């Protein structure tokens, strides 16, 4: 076994901070000395800048991507008795909020090449109770939003884009989060636009939706101590807004760096037997929040369908990579339709086979804008060493 000298993490937030340390620490100190920690001009300015960046008229910031999705559903009055179509291959928050408002998630299988919702299967899942579709731009790769919007329009469904992993990604030259009725973003530190703590945002071109979300994120209050609705408390604080204002200015450069790293991975990995590299749709310009490959081997199929229990070929490769000092992650080891919490929904093993297979095979490799060429070569060298 070759023991590498330097280990390579899947993500290095400290390295990114080092590149903007002077600007960020200055902005943070200004907020601290100002005494204004909640609300204020930094938050309002960031909302305006983010709306401009995404290309919408309205942005409402909040405490997290989870809250953004929750607020979006509440703003559309989606609740008990309603169904929301989405993917089983995403972070749990996407459907947790559907359940939290009292609605029912309806899972549609993914497309094997893109890991995203298979739009050809959406129509068969639509019932009289369906109110909305939540497409997730997973790993930073946009869905076919033209296709989604056509389906939604013909069935009069709302579209809430989950852009948590895709800030700045484009579909047909339009930023994701500006195409559906509502876009939901996360500024969790590991996302491609990450704060130094929790944060989120909702984008829309509909002033009525924006106004409703502003109301709901502040305890449903309109005017001090007058309550119109049961809301929540969900704020982006001034420190995070100040940091995000700075980071937003670098985002396009960082996204370009991610694209260059993704191209290099593709060049160096796509010809290797047993590795399937991710594909991009022609109209999509993704931001590669994750670079996720599939690991396949003869005999692997025997364990599919099922739930990954940690004993797959992929898991072996991952632990061998770890021994060689290369970090990686499994996004995601279990599909949502087979989660314990959704037992009551009655999905069966094998029912959404592509999502289940992906859970056995996926491995996300080191991906962050500052990843150097030599680090990337070490990732690839080590990965080849681990294949059998
Ligand atoms: C991170 C994430 C969320 C939730 O965002 P938080 O800010 O962590 O609450 C929702 N959906 C997807 C796809 C995510 O990756």
The amount of beta strand, in percent, is 5-15%
User: Helix segment count?
Assistant: 11
| Number of beta-strand segments | 13
Mean pLDDT: 95
End-to-end CA span: 14 Å
Fraction of residues in helix? 25-40%
Gross morphology: globular
The helix-strand sequence is: HHEHEHEHEHEEEEEHHEEEHHEH
Widest sheet: strand ordering? 1-9-8-5-4-2-3
Count of spatially separate domains: 2
Radius of gyration: 21 Å
CATH topology label of the largest domain: Aspartate Aminotransferase, domain 2
**Structural class of the secondary structure composition?**
alpha/beta
CATH architecture of the largest domain: 3-Layer(aba) Sandwich
User: Low-confidence parts lasting 5 or more residues at pLDDT below 50?
Assistant: none
């Amino acid at each position: 076994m070759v023991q590498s000298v330097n280990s390579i993490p899947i993500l290095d937030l400290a390295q990114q901070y080092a590149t903007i340390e002077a600007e960020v620490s200055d902005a943070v100190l200004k907020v601290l000395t100002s005494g204004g920690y909640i609300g204020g001009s930094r938050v309002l300015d960031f909302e305006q800048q983010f709306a401009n960046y995404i290309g919408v008229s309205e942005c409402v910031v909040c405490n997290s991507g989870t809250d953004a999705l929750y607020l979006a559903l509440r703003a559309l009055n989606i609740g008990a008795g309603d169904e929301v179509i989405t993917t089983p291959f995403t972070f749990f928050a996407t459907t947790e909020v559907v359940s939290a408002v009292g609605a029912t998630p309806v899972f549609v299988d993914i497309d094997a090449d893109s890991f995203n919702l298979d739009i050809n299967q959406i129509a068969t899942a639509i019932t009289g109770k369906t109110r909305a579709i939540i497409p997730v731009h997973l790993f930073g790769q946009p869905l076919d939003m033209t296709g989604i919007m056509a389906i939604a329009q013909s069935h009069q469904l709302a579209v809430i884009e989950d852009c948590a992993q895709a800030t700045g990604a484009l579909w047909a030259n339009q930023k994701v989060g500006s195409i559906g009725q509502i876009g939901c973003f996360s500024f969790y530190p590991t996302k491609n636009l990450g704060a130094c703590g929790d944060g989120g945002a909702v984008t829309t071109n509909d002033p009525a939706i924006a106004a409703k979300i502003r109301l709901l994120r502040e305890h449903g209050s309109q005017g001090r101590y007058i309550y119109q609705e049961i809301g929540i408390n969900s704020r982006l604080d001034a420190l995070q807004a100040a940091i995000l204002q700075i980071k937003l200015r670098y985002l396009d450069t960082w996204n370009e760096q991610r694209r260059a790293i993704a191209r290099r991975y593709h060049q160096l990995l796509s010809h290797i037997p047993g590795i399937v590299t991710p594909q991009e749709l022609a109209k999509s310009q993704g931001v590669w929040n994750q670079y996720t490959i599939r690991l396949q081997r003869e005999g692997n199929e025997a364990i599919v369908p099922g739930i990954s229990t940690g004993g797959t070929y992929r898991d072996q490769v991952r632990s061998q990579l770890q021994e060689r000092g290369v970090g990686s992650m499994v996004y995601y080891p279990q599909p949502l339709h087979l989660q314990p919490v959704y037992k009551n929904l009655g999905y069966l093993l094998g029912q959404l086979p592509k999502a289940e297979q992906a859970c056995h095979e996926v491995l996300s490799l080191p991906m962050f804008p500052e990843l150097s060429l030599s680090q990337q070569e070490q990732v690839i060298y080590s990965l080849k060493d681990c294949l059998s």
